[in-house]
Amino acid sequence: MVAMQVETSARHEERRYSVTERYLDGPLGPTRYWASTPVQGLPVVFIHGYGALIDHWRKIVRSVAREHTFYALDLYGFGYSARPEGQPSKVRWAEQIAHFVQKVVGGPAVIVGHSMGGVAATEFTRRFPELTRALILVNSSGMQLYERPLTPTDQVLLSLIGAPVIGETVAGIFGNEWGVRQSLLASYHRKEAVTPELVETFSGPLRRFGANSYLAVTRSSVRFGIDMQPGEYNGPTLLIWGAEDRSIPPSDAEAIKRRILPQAEIAILPDTGHCPFDETPELFTDALLPWLAKLG
Hints:
The chain is about 40% helix and about 20% strand.
């Protein structure tokens, strides 16, 4: 058990809390996670996106943990969790999340998934509805193949990445601090949020483990659509989206609502790109926390 940080109450607040980093042993290896104490409010589990890790949520930990129990985990193949053998899959991640919710949370939780983590969160919800208190998707991927089918150029690029040697060469070029920075700049509308500290945080796992697990996910990307069918999950749902996301535009939130989750509420955040909790954290928590309060 590693103490990650201790946060005391903010001004005008009397509540105190701490956030601790731990590892949970599982069938496919250890899962790195953060958990806050005391246990209060709702249990809220945050699932990061492609190439990311727990630390990407750092700007909103304080706001969430004042009112609710904050949890976050590194998905297999990312951050500092295990790199299991075999092909990555959304089913594997869904089962990882379920194991975490059962063993650490101990009951149904609010699941928050960002980008690729939205696909993992949705797969978890459809397979384990009894463990889902509510579902929140943040600029979630998973609709692209339905809304914007692959072009011939896309297919050629995926074929090249999937080819032996070529894919590894591409991973070697982009699997470093320079590549991390370019990827983040492409995702962020507010470029000033891509700080050296953020680049360093994202680069750490690449230095320790290399980029092979990331490459494996890229090669499997066509299998990471959202498979949920209408009516499979009817519980509370919130879609939070950056209005200026160019890779996964707000129209994908409308598609999720139209195709599979008609009960979903949508919050579009202005002047925000693909990572609203890091680009505009106050806008993000202004959308998130009142909605959680209504769940009671």
